[in-house]
Amino acid sequence: MSIRWGAVKTSQRSPMPRRKRQMNNLSPSKSLYEPRRAVHNKRIDGPFRRFKWLVMAVTLGIYYGTPWIRWDRGPYAPDQAVLVDLAHRRFYMFGIEIWPQEFYFVAGLLIMAGIGLFLVTSAVGRAWCGYSCPQTVWTDLFQHVDRFVDGDRNARMKLDAAPWTWGKVTRRVFKWAIYLVIGFWTGGAWIMYFADAPTLVHDFWRGEAAPVAYVTVAILTLTTVTLGGFMREQVCIYMCPWPRIQSAMMDEKSLTVTYKDWRGEPRGSLKKSKKEPDKFGDCIDCNLCVAVCPTGIDIREGPQIGCITCALCIDACDRTMAEVGRPRGLIDYVTLEDARREIAGEPPRPVWKALLRPRTLVYFGIWSAIGLAMLFALGTRNRIDISAAPDRNPPFMLLSDGSVRNSFTVKIRNMSTAPRRMKIELEGLPGAAMWSSTTSRDRAAREIESTIPADATEPLRLYIAAPPGTGGQSFAFNLTTLDAQTETDTAKVTFSGPGASE
Ligand code: SF4
Ligand code: SF4
After folding, report:
1. Which CATH number fits domain 384-498: 2.60.40.10, 2.20.25.90, 3.40.1830.10, 2.40.50.180?
2. How far is CA 496 from CA 169, 391, 440, 470, in A?
3. What is the pLDDT of residue 248?
């Protein structure tokens, strides 16, 4: 699958006269960079456009709405369903709570997202770019704002070319104000993932939120308006590395939006092709596929980096074909392999054969295996943890009765959303007993109990006294919860003493 790199043909936005274009090409001072000409894509309806509406509604709905979803975790944890709690170093996602030492779950999710993109790209090419990439979704939204304020393609082109009048200034100010509102809501929604949304909104409007909240909203407002409102397709064509990486993931069996030149060429107007049907192909050169393209390219010039495979040109061409009574699919999702088959006159293969093939199944297998492994790890993970560090200086002390004392800093972690009673026991170290800094040696025992608050790490100072002459040896602190949902954890440590090591 070869994709054409470099400057993008801008057939849709070509008001420049041919003579001037020729002069530009001949000019010795021709710039390496073609100045952007606005893309005024035309409204179109069809199955792919409706699918894009659906994806836009779902993705924007998730983005703007998720911080407002509540999730009851009891009195000791926040009730926001999705929350990155930087202050307490926690990540909450519905019933899942991730601590910093469990970051491998987030890494696993990122790996799954990466493999998911491999899977989608190898099956349906740049579908991510065409439907669900944030740049695409927001650009689409801004293009609908343009249409709402200035009208469809012709009206917008006319307004663009018109001199600056009060009417034009008013429209521009109104449109850019809507851009700013969208950018502001986008930045505002982002910060709500990092704090309790209702509280933050209240504090934000009263000027009591942290300065970083205002700075973040300002930056995201600016970037949303700049990237989605003004730069648009230039981000996809010149800035984003993903199209370059994607072309390496696609092969001859990947579906991609294709103009069937073997069926459409030579193109000619409907009038001409009716007069001489044998001389012309099915393309009546109506230019509708170019007019609806959100990146302003002409798909009839072959696969190119500017094509995000949104398939709006398929909707457009299918409409034209229906109007002139020719079969649909002059522009369609086709694999390179099937294109060759069609050219050779063989019947096309069913779409599922392009989707279900060894490569996509391998990606799906890896993706599912990681997902299942993560689900298993999540379902079986411990919500308690114990670690212990001995004092190094001095490593041991001899008490007046000759027994050997070691001191330890033991950290007990309760990762659940309620306080838990726990028991710490000594394993090994015969004849030894322990006590904490809040009690005395009189109450030394082989086990002690403690209540650890919800969602907290509690440090304990523990002292262990072993019989006289005890030498260096390994032993363990065993931690067990004293509730119905019994969980255990162990910290292995070394006891230091003057006797021979065991
Ligand atoms: S050429 Fe067609 S599929 Fe590609 S970006 Fe334009 S409208 Fe979308
Ligand atoms: S919409 Fe179809 S018929 Fe019209 S110019 Fe494009 S390919 Fe040709």
Report:
1. 2.60.40.10
2. 82, 10, 21, 8
3. 84
- Which are the contacts of 442, defined by CB distance < 8 A and separation ≥ 6? none
Nearest Cα residue to 129 out of 3, 287, 283: 3
Q: Which ligand is nearest to the CA of 297?
A: 1
- C-alpha to C-alpha distances, 330 to 47, 109, 267, nearest whole angstrom: 16, 39, 12
Name the percent of the chain lying above pLDDT 90.
Answer: 78
DSSP H or E segment with residue 7: none
Ligand 1 neighbour 460 (Cβ under 6 A): no
Whether residue 453 contacts residue 414, with contact meaning beta carbons closer than 8 Å, is answered with yes
Average pLDDT, the chain: 91
User: How many CB atoms are located within 10 Å of the residue 484 CB?
Assistant: 5
Q: Which ligand is nearest to the CA of 127?
A: 1
Q: Can you list the alpha helix ranges (DSSP code H) found in 299-452? A: 312-324, 336-343, 351-355, 358-380
DSSP string, 146-213: HHHHH-SHHHHHHHHHS---HHHHHHHHHHHHHHHHHHHHHHHHHHGGGS-HHHHHHHHHTT-S-HHH
Backbone angles phi, psi at 475, to 5 degrees: -150, -175
Domain boundaries, the chain: 384-498
- Tell me how many degrees the CA angle 239-245-249 measures, rounded to the nearest 5: 150
Tell me which residue has tokens 């801004």. 142
Token code pair at residue 304: 């190119």
Instruction: Quote the pLDDT of residue 13.
Output: 46
* 0.90 exceeded by pTM: no
Q: pLDDT of 100-120, one tens digit each?
A: 989 899 999 999 999 999 999
SS3 at position 470: coil
- The C-alpha atoms of residue 385 and residue 424 are separated, in whole angstroms, by 11
Evaluate if residue 4 carries a pLDDT over 60. Answer: no
Which residue among 128, 240, 299, 330 is best mutated to probe the pocket of ligand 1, counting the most ligand atoms within 8 A of its Cβ? 299
Q: Determine whether the shortest distance from the Cβ of 309 to ligand 1 is under 6 A.
A: yes
* Sheet of strand 488-498, all strands in order from the earlier edge strand to the far edge: 447-452, 420-427, 471-481, 488-498
Tell the residue number behind the tokens 């899942």, with chain if given: 96
Sorting pLDDT into bands at 50, 70 and 90, what band is 30?
A: low
